[in-house]
Amino acid sequence: LSLKFGDIGNLKGLVIRFLLTTSYYQLSVQNWFSLHRLQLVYNHSVQATFNATRIHAPATYSYHCDHVSSLQRYNALLIPSSANDLSQLWEVTFIDFQIQGFNIQEGHFAYAKDCASFFSPAILMGLVMSLILLLVLAYALHMLIHLKSLDRHYECKASPAYFAQMKDNDMGDEKEPLRNSGNESYELRNKHFGKIYI
Questions:
Q1: Cβ-based neighbours of 19, under 8 Å, separated by 6 or more
Q2: What is the pLDDT confidence band of residue 16, given thresholds at 50, 70 and 90?
Q3: How sure is the predictor about 118, in pLDDT bands with cuts at 50, 70 and 90?
Q4: Among 52, 75, 96, 125, which residue's CB has the most CB atoms within a 10 Å radius?
Q5: Assigned domain for 106 exists
Q6: Are residues 13 and 89 in the same domain?
Q7: Is 139 helix (H, G, I), strand (E, B) or coil?
Q8: Residue 91 and residue 72: Cα distance in Å, rounded?
């Protein structure tokens, strides 16, 4: 696929040439196309060649990307093929780039496969933060349920009937009648309290 610009300044017959290839992948059971190489042709010869990376899409789709560039700040999808030619002297950047080499219908692009990854660093960070928040929420709910069960346990222990029954049994164990000169007195068996006379 060639884009012909003609003469631009000192560049005679400037052409940007895209070399596209198709391949069949058994895993996806369909043909895919990929941009294999980009060439800058001027002065009637190839002056710079860039190898393209990660620029591919199903053959029935088009490929779209906000920036296809040889610059690192745009992820450098175009890599100079050799240090011997003039590729190192060129900085190539396409903005709002879209390409489709095969199965073009009515002169319009097909549905575009975008270069943006579904698992970009921002998306991965958001997923990790969501997982942490879910774990904190699950821990908080677990603690609330646990506290509620403790409240029920102590409600049973703190009922008046429970302590009244204990009080009756304990009073029989703690006091013992004593006979002393006509007055009735009781002695506590528990040595911690000493003796009480009534």
A1: 35, 36, 37, 38, 39
A2: very high
A3: low
A4: 52
A5: yes
A6: yes
A7: helix
A8: 10
Average pLDDT over residues 123-136: 91
Structure tokens at 49: 């060649």
Q: pLDDT, tens digit, for every residue of 136-158? A: 999 999 888 877 555 555 555 55
Question: What letter does residue 81 receive in the DSSP assignment?
Answer: S
Q: Which domain holds residue 140?
A: 119-157
Alpha carbon distances (Å) from 142 to 94, 128, 136, 152, 155:
54, 21, 10, 16, 20
HSE-up (13 A, CA, CB side) for residue 41: 18
Average pLDDT over residues 167-182: 51
* Residues 97 and 138 occupy one common structural domain: no
Note whether 111 and 126 are same-domain residues: no
Per the domain annotation, does 168 fall within a domain? no
List, in order, residues 6 or more apart from 27 with CB less than 8 Å away: none
Residue for token pair 């928040």? 133
Residues 9 and 80 in one domain: yes
- 123 and 43 housed in the same domain: no
Q: Any idea what DSSP says for residue 86? A: G
pTM: 0.56
